[in-house]
Design brief:
Layout (H helix, E strand, L loop, with lengths): L10 E4 L10 E5 L10 E4 L2 H9 L6 H14 L9 H15 L7 H22 L9 H32 L7 E4 L14 H10 L5 E5 L6 H12 L3 E5 L4 H7 L4 E4 L3 E3 L4 E4 L2 H10 L4 E4 L5 E2 L16 H4 L18 E4 L6 E4 L2 E3 L4 H7 L4
Parallel strand pairs: 4-5, 4-7, 5-6, 7-10, 8-11, 10-13
Antiparallel strand pairs: 1-2, 2-3, 8-9, 9-12, 13-14
This protein binds 5-S-methyl-1-O-phosphono-5-thio-D-ribulose (MRU).
5-S-methyl-1-O-phosphono-5-thio-D-ribulose (MRU) binds next to α2 and β9.
Amino acid sequence: MAKPANPVHSIRWVVEGEPGPFGSHLQLLDQTRLPQDTIYLDLTTVSEVWQAIKRLSVRGAPAIGIAAAYGVCLACRTAKPKSFAELLEDCRQAAQYLATSRPTAVNLFWALNRMNHTLDSLPQVWSQTSFGEQADPARWLQIQLLQTATAIHEEDRLMCHAIGRFGAELLQDGDQVLTHCNTGGLATSEYGTALSVCFTAQDQGKKLHVYIDETRPLLQGARLTAWELLQRKIDCTLICDNMAAHVMATKEVNAVIVGADRIAANGDTANKIGTYNLAVLANFHRVPFYVAAPSSTFDLSIANGDSIPIEERHAEEITESFGRRTAPEGVRVYNPAFDVTPATLIEGIITELGLIRPVTRQQIESVLQVI
Ligand code: MRU
């Protein structure tokens, strides 16, 4: 079956002038404006990238990491000439600052660590660089950093396709899948994670039907997943989050597949708030519950989900999201953006290196080839 052209380019590095990438900037599809408006943001400063991540113009664990990596490259854009040492320090500070934008998705810290490693290696390379190239340290530095940022971007694209291939083996023609939040091209560099499984199954000629949780409070499912599935002509139905139990009880749901923001060493998984509910419901209804995530979403430094930092967001996202007040002034609000699903409720974790099943520390280490 012919592959549909990829309709989603959520993150792009734009080369502004010739020659070379210096002066280039980051372009993001503003996800807060979808599905009504397809508007690209042109970001030229580190602080603009921080804001874009914070307000969810770019969101989804892998996409946040990719955007932040490019954000570090923007620290080389400087109006006044600076020395190599000053620029290096600016980039280090940019990485530190970007790490404060959102706490839960470990891909952010994973990507920034890679940028920091590149920064650490550069003084030695610089000292061996010829005098001609040293004429413009900002340009030189940005070229080096861009190599790492574009590698992160491209590796994510490949990981997502591999996740899709492993995950599609779990689905049959005619299956009905239930998903939560948005895990497609918008949340990653191209195919996505949980949605990559659906896209790949479709590429293989399997016809699926996908139930989309709207995903309160910010409606990533309704606004973004529905948009992506319709673009790819995948049969889908939007439901409110609180309809999932009824759907599992009365319709045949063959699998629940969701993404992840951070997976602990024992497989406990943080993902968009409401994922844990789905896992409990799937368990009760004996529907297999799968998580799809690249290896960059694993945090093997933490033993279990208790140590995953859970982001709490503004009350207004619940009381007046999308411009209309829906709760009385003064009411107390609790707005955690993520929850943790215990590993025991997860049938398998689909990674680019294969399926982790059963979800145990040992099996995670074996599939991820941890030595
Ligand atoms: O707050 P968001 O929209 O960034 O949350 C995103 C999710 O929870 C996704 O399910 C997760 O990042 C996986 S994206 C492939």
